[in-house]
Here is the input.
Amino acid sequence: MRITSHRSFARNLPTGSFRRLAMAVVTLLAGQAYGHSFVIPMGAAADKTHYIGVVCSTDGGTETDHLYLQVQSQTSNGPLISVQAHKGVLATNTTDPVGGDAAPSPPVVVKGGNGLYQVLMNKSGFGEITYLLTVHCMDATGTIHTGTDFAVFQYE
Here is the structure.
């Protein structure tokens, strides 16, 4: 699934509707959602990629310092799952080194403040997997969640 002109689409919706629609699409595609963690299936083809936007804001009254990310494969003996995130000239990535165990990837952060972060998930080869993606917009202390919204750009 591709949303190719999300900006013009969003302009034609009443205020807040795009946010609710994006969250509904992410939740629908993910199947299950836990706060800002989503359980998402990924098809078998080796080149499958998921691409979302995470918008961090001052909703709630606190400035965003960084985006926190982790990914965890829930599929034993499947390809490895990785997540990459970037905002402006800042980028990071992390990979869950063992699929199907109880441990997620090492956590990573992108210290880009408020705004849109581009987040991509991909896998190391052929095979269907299910993964848990955790994202949090956080303040500088890493203890307060700031405004967090989502947009789905590509779901294959």
Remarks:
- Residues 6-155 form a domain with the Jelly Rolls fold (CATH 2.60.120.380).
- Confidence is low (pLDDT under 50) at residues 1-34.
- The chain has one domain: 6-155.
- Strands lie at 32-34, 37-42, 49-57, 66-73, 81-87, 90-95, 108-110, 115-123, 129-138, 147-155.
